Amino acid sequence: MLQTKTRQVRERELQALLSTPQGRVELERLASQYQDDGGRARPVRTSIITYILVHERQRGLIDG
């Protein structure tokens, strides 16, 4: 079972991934997976971090 995290903790984790090329690839992979799962494309002006956070919150993976 996955443990839920606060939005702030998860946001910091995602921001840390932006600092490396491999991390950016992982963020894109995760966003693509979430798009496939939910059927919603990321809006053009929405950051990848916001997109991931919204999806994870809807799935109950993030508290608060």
Write the layout of secondary structure elements.
Elements: E1 5-6, H1 7-17, H2 21-38, H3 48-58, E2 62-63
Parallel strand pairs: 1-2
How would you describe this structure in keywords?
64 residues, mainly alpha, two-stranded parallel ribbon, 3 helices, 6% strand
Give a brief description:
The chain has 64 residues and is mostly helical. 62% of the residues lie in helices and 6% in strands. The two termini are 19 Å apart.
Walk me through the structure.
- The protein has helices spanning 7-17, 21-38, 48-58, and strands spanning 5-6, 62-63.
- A two-stranded parallel sheet has the order 1-2.
- Helix content is 62%, strand content 6%.
- Helix 1 (7-17) runs antiparallel to helix 3 (48-58) and helix 2 crosses helix 3 (48-58).
- By secondary structure, it is mainly α.
- The radius of gyration is 11 Å and the shape is globular.
- The two termini are 19 Å apart.
